[in-house]
Amino acid sequence: MNNMNIAKRAFIISFLYVFIGTISVLSVYPEAPLYGDWVIVTLVLTLPVTFISLGVMYADASAFGLVVLIQLVVFFVLWYVLFRVLDKRQKRSE
Fold it and tell me: How large a percentage of the chain has pLDDT more than 70?
């Protein structure tokens, strides 16, 4: 597998994981349109990428823009780290 395939795989995994975490953080308050029982479960599963945004939402319930910005930065960091891990694993198996 070449670096482009590894980058695509890392992108898709990172995007889905951070996207689900972002939606759950934005739906944490009962007034949110997507609020439901699923929020607690997804917050626990995505806590490594949502803990900062969860703190921001707890402090200010209307900070949607800041949460999205934080999650965007978290997405790029996770994408880079996951790419490096997958690349190193690929090189080790060759």
Answer: 99
> How many angstroms separate the CA atoms of 70 and 18, rounded?
11
Distance CA 26, CA 60 (A): 11
Rounded-to-integer distance, Cα 54 and Cα 41, Å: 14
pTM for the predicted model, two decimal places: 0.91
Angle between the 3-26 and 64-93 helix axes, to the nearest 10 degrees?
A: 150
Within 10 Å of residue 83's Cβ, how many Cβ atoms?
19
Question: Tokens in use for 68?
Answer: 């999205």
Tell me the three-class secondary structure of 28-46, residue by residue.
Answer: CCCCCCCCCCHHHHHHHHC
Between CA 67 and CA 50 the distance in angstroms is 9
Indicate whether 72 pLDDT > 70: yes
Q: Quick: pLDDT tens for 40-70.
A: 999 999 999 999 999 999 999 889 999 999 9
The DSSP letter of residue 63 is: -
